[in-house]
């Protein structure tokens, strides 16, 4: 699913009116009626006080349509007009007259703090003050109204956008943004819904199709692409019957140091569970017995050094290399990484201390094979690109690094971003239980395995992140968020692949 900008959505509205031969008022009626239906479906006629706060633009017009339909359906509704300016949109004025004439209930005008209504904990609040078009700070008393609404603790449904949130830009005043319990947005999600600093205001999200022009939506260049089951399923390549282990690639996992052999074991386990035909682990000597005992399916090569990697030499021909988990950043390991990069052009996935070494040795970037995948967590990312003021600046810095060295960079988080020189993908699977040691090691193994099987690096990154998150979701369903551990995520990778195909029978 595409994420579009506020400007693109405005253009989509304009083209829809022309192509479908309808007025903007009719399009507003269509969109707001769908929101009314969702509210009605949930409230089921319950005698809950509904308080709708409408701005004086088109988002306010949506709120007026919703209010009129709820009143006509028998709900106890009070509509408030947030009168922050003398200018009104034409569609707002039309629907203002309609709600007065058809329901005989005049909206209540709010002009200052003295007009703020009482909001109770059990109320159902609809936020239709500002929509996707907000591009400047609020008037002071309106900002206080937002704080007043938030403080009540009522259920808040935001129409299109929580008021105070901007679709495509950072916010300066976090205290003056509606903290929605639920957001119903029109046609396309917005970037702000997935940024760590702003996603918290959205609550649960529902995207409703208001039938904007399909031709425009198809041709529009996405700001980002959301990855859910349909997109992941389209990336999956089914296995052919007459194949063998060599068909599915030889993954070389290089990692580990004294006390951190578990990390490379998790990565190799995940690679096997994600379908790698062969997995070889390169680790310090101290890991040999551990790895041979705990993971009999993998082959093991050891470094001459007992505790760290110092001399990465191997006589195999891998299809892909996963490097960095648990290796540490000692000088000997740094030089070993330099030697590795100088001699190999195989596709690479670099994680953990491999990223930390890169951040200290800028010349290493020139040695990376094109399409190398980096999988930093937030602190590792900061070491790579430096600090940032907000999530939009962070994203631009990552894009710049991706373009400069032709890399694929993952910004790991609640919604993991996959950044390429030209495109952006946002994953929708995963849960708070995955905030656990070793989860990132598992992700490295999954992506490495997919590249070894012949997936090109971007497809491997997108599908790998989805499967990793879904495996975590399946674990959470079994064990709770608190009960998820990284080994479980690795072992549920196969179940995550099964889940791509809803009609496919799962083994008992």
TrEMBL record:
Q: Where does AMP bind?
A: 412-416, 440
Which residue range or ranges hold the YjeF N-terminal domain?
9-218
Q: Does the keyword NAD apply?
A: yes
Q: Which UniProt keywords apply?
A: ATP-binding, Isomerase, Lyase, Metal-binding, Multifunctional enzyme, NAD, NADP, Nucleotide-binding, Potassium
| Residue numbers binding K(+) | 59, 127, 163
Q: Taxonomically, which superkingdom?
A: Bacteria
Q: Span of the secretion signal?
A: none
- Occurrences of domain YjeF C-terminal (ranges): 228-500
Question: Keyword Isomerase on this protein?
Answer: yes
What the record notes about the co-factor is: Binds 1 potassium ion per subunit.
Q: Where does (6S)-NADPHX bind?
A: 58-62, 131-137, 160, 326, 377, 441
Q: What is its EC number?
A: 4.2.1.136, 5.1.99.6
Please give the catalytic activity noted in the UniProt record: (6R)-NADPHX = (6S)-NADPHX; (6S)-NADPHX + ADP = AMP + phosphate + NADPH + H(+); (6R)-NADHX = (6S)-NADHX; (6S)-NADHX + ADP = AMP + phosphate + NADH + H(+)
- List required co-factors: Mg(2+); K(+)
| Assembly with partners or alone | Homotetramer.
**Function comment:** Bifunctional enzyme that catalyzes the epimerization of the S- and R-forms of NAD(P)HX and the dehydration of the S-form of NAD(P)HX at the expense of ADP, which is converted to AMP. This allows the repair of both epimers of NAD(P)HX, a damaged form of NAD(P)H that is a result of enzymatic or heat-dependent hydration. Catalyzes the dehydration of the S-form of NAD(P)HX at the expense of ADP, which is converted to AMP. Together with NAD(P)HX epimerase, which catalyzes the epimerization of the S- and R-forms, the enzyme allows the repair of both epimers of NAD(P)HX, a damaged form of NAD(P)H that is a result of enzymatic or heat-dependent hydration.
* Family per similarity comment: Belongs to the NnrE/AIBP family.
What is this protein identified as? Bifunctional NAD(P)H-hydrate repair enzyme
Lineage at the top is: Bacteria, Pseudomonadati, Bacteroidota, Flavobacteriia, Flavobacteriales
């Amino acid at each position: 699913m595409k994420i579009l900008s506020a400007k693109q959505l405005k253009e989509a509205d304009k083209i829809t009116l022309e192509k479908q031969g309808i007025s903007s008022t009719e399009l507003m009626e269509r969109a707001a009626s769908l929101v009314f239906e969702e509210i009605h479906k949930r409230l089921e006629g319950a005698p809950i006080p509904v308080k709708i706060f409408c701005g004086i633009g088109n988002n306010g017009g949506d709120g007026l349509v919703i209010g009129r339909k709820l009143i006509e359906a028998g709900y106890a509704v009070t509509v408030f007009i947030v009168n922050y300016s003398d200018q009104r949109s034409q569609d707002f004025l039309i629907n203002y007259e309609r709600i007065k004439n058809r329901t005989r209930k005049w909206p209540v005008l709010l002009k200052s703090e003295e007009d703020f209504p009482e909001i109770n904990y059990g109320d159902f609040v609809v936020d239709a003050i500002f929509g996707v078009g907000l591009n400047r700070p609020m008037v002071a008393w309106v900002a206080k109204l937002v704080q007043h609404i938030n403080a009540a603790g009522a259920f808040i449904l935001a129409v299109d956008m929580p008021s105070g949130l901007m679709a495509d830009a950072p916010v300066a005043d976090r205290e003056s943004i509606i903290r929605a319990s639920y957001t119903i947005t029109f046609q396309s999600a917005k970037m702000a819904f997935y940024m760590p600093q702003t996603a918290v205001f959205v609550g649960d999200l529902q995207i409703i199709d208001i039938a904007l022009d399909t031709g425009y939506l198809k041709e529009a260049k996405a700001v980002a692409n959301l990855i859910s089951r349909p997109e992941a399923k389209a990336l999956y390549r089914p296995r052919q019957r007459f194949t063998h282990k060599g068909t599915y690639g030889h993954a070389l996992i290089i990692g580990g140091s004294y006390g951190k052999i578990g990390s490379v074991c998790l990565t190799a386990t995940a690679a096997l569970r994600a379908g790698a035909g062969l997995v070889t682990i390169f680790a310090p000597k101290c890991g040999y017995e551990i790895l041979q005992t705990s993971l009999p399916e993998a082959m093991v090569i050891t470094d001459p050094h007992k505790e760290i990697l110092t001399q990465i030499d191997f006589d195999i021909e891998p299809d892909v290399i996963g490097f960095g988990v648990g290796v540490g950043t000692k000088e000997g390991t740094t030089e070993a990484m330099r030697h590795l990069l100088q001699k190999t052009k195989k596709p690479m996935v670099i994680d953990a201390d491999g990223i930390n070494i890169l951040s200290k040795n800028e010349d290493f970037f020139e040695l990376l094979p094109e399409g190398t995948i980096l999988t930093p967590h937030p602190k590792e990312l900061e070491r790579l690109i430096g600090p940032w003021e907000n999530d939009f600046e962070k994203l631009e810095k990552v894009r710049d690094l991706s373009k400069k060295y032709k890399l694929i960079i993952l910004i790991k988080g609640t919604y993991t971003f996959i950044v390429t020189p030209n495109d952006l993908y946002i994953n929708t699977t995963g849960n708070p239980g995955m905030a656990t040691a070793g989860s990132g090691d598992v992700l490295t193994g999954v992506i490495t395995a997919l590249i070894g099987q012949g997936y090109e690096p971007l497809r491997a990154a997108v599908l790998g992140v989805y499967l990793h998150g879904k495996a975590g979701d399946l674990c959470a369903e079994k064990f709770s968020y608190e009960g998820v551990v990284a080994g479980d995520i690795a072992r549920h990778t196969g179940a995550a692949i099964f889940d791509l195909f809803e009609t496919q029978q799962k083994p008992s």
